[in-house]
Write a structure and sequence with these properties.
Length: 363
């Protein structure tokens, strides 16, 4: 049997199908008609050997950086891998948060690196603990990987934390990658979006990765990107030479078109998530045995099931007897928790929460 590098991702692809899926975390998908001009924009060729210039310019404008700092890729996961492969060699150490998203740890191990962890603790609201990071560093640490909003809990990084991470990077010389796949929708949920800035917009040292998937519903495009320090993009492009060479011309063209409609796509997503979060708040109020631990500022939440060290039996029974799937916390080194996505359709969320309520009442 093949080695399983990312247990969570393997589970996500092979788990039994249930009537209601609250584990998949993609934003409610757009149709092609949600993207005006999409049919006319599709062409099979584009000059994109070193990146499609109009797309790089659109992403750069989104971050208010120069296009030479932009590298686009196949999804946020693809962008993360380009960053990892450009910075990590066999025998190096990588430092990751825990709880964390295990496909990134698996990718680092595939590159031959040793993965160490620093804790993001529930008692601290899963905030970043710089002292814990410093204690976990080794002389071989080349890369630190963080998510914001935190996957799985949804806890975001504030400007103050990003400035602290920038100072940490300057002090230690270690590169910091911040996966911001869920950040744009969290910014839209804020009265003041600048409370949750993008890392690469705050510092030229910090690396941001993201995509059009989790916040804007363009899952099928698989358009991701990395915003890197000046002079670093060339390293990522040379990594891409041996992975997929260039991007897909139709995808690059459609993604560029999407950036021209980002305000409308964002408004669509915000309206959808605002309604869904109202249902989630009512659900949590009815089930105090689920402790959310952080404010609802993202499209994922990671409540703890009180009175037990393992929510696994509840999760399995909910799928088997009630037809609703949530992601087990054990994949995030937190077995008492469950990860719930609120990004799918309103009908799926309402039905799934109703079934989960039944399972909880019989726990």
């Amino acid at each position: 049997m093949a080695e399983i590098l990312a247990p969570y991702m393997h589970w996500a692809k092979t788990r039994p199908v249930t009537e209601f899926d609250l584990a998949a975390s993609n934003m409610l998908a757009c149709s092609i008609d949600d993207l005006p001009g999409a049919r006319e924009a599709i062409e099979l060729t584009a000059k994109n050997d070193e990146g499609y210039a109009p797309l790089c310019e659109a992403i750069a404008a989104h971050y208010r950086v120069t296009p030479d700092r932009v590298v686009h890729a196949i999804g946020c996961s693809g962008a993360n891998f380009l960053v990892m492969a450009a910075h990590v060699r066999a025998g190096d150490d990588v430092l990751m948060e825990m709880p964390g998203y295990d496909p990134m740890a698996g990718a680092c191990r595939l590159l031959g690196a040793r993965v160490n962890h620093f804790p993001r603790r529930a008692v601290d609201g899963f905030a970043i603990d710089i002292d814990a990071m410093r204690q976990a560093l080794t002389p071989k640490t080349r890369l630190v990987i963080i998510t914001s909003p935190h996957n799985p809990t949804g806890a975001p990084l504030t400007r103050e934390t990003l400035l602290t991470l920038d100072a940490f990077s300057a002090e230690t010389g270690v590169t910091i990658l911040i996966d911001e796949a869920y950040l744009d929708i969290s910014r839209l949920l804020q009265a003041d979006p600048d409370r949750l800035p993008r890392a690469a917009s705050v510092s030229t040292r910090l690396i941001s990765t993201s995509s059009l998937t989790k916040s804007f519903g363009l899952n099928g495009l698989r358009c991701g990107w990395a915003i890197v320090p000046p002079g670093v993009a060339e390293r990522l492009r040379r990594v891409r030479d041996v992975i997929d060479g260039v991007g897909s011309a139709p995808v690059d063209r459609l993604a560029t078109l999407a950036f021209g409609h980002l305000p409308a796509l964002g408004a669509r997503a915000l309206s959808h998530i605002t309604q869904n979060l109202a249902h989630v708040r009512a659900f949590l109020a009815a089930h105090p045995q689920l402790e959310p631990l952080v404010p609802l500022e993202a499209t994922i939440l990671f409540p703890r099931l009180t009175g037990t060290d393992d929510a696994g039996p509840l999760i399995e029974r909910a799928a088997r007897e009630y037809g609703v799937t949530v992601a087990p916390g054990r994949f995030f080194d937190s077995p008492a928790h469950l990860r719930i996505s609120v990004a799918g359709s309103a009908a799926n969320l309402a039905g799934g929460l109703s079934r989960l309520s039944e399972a909880l009442r019989r726990t």
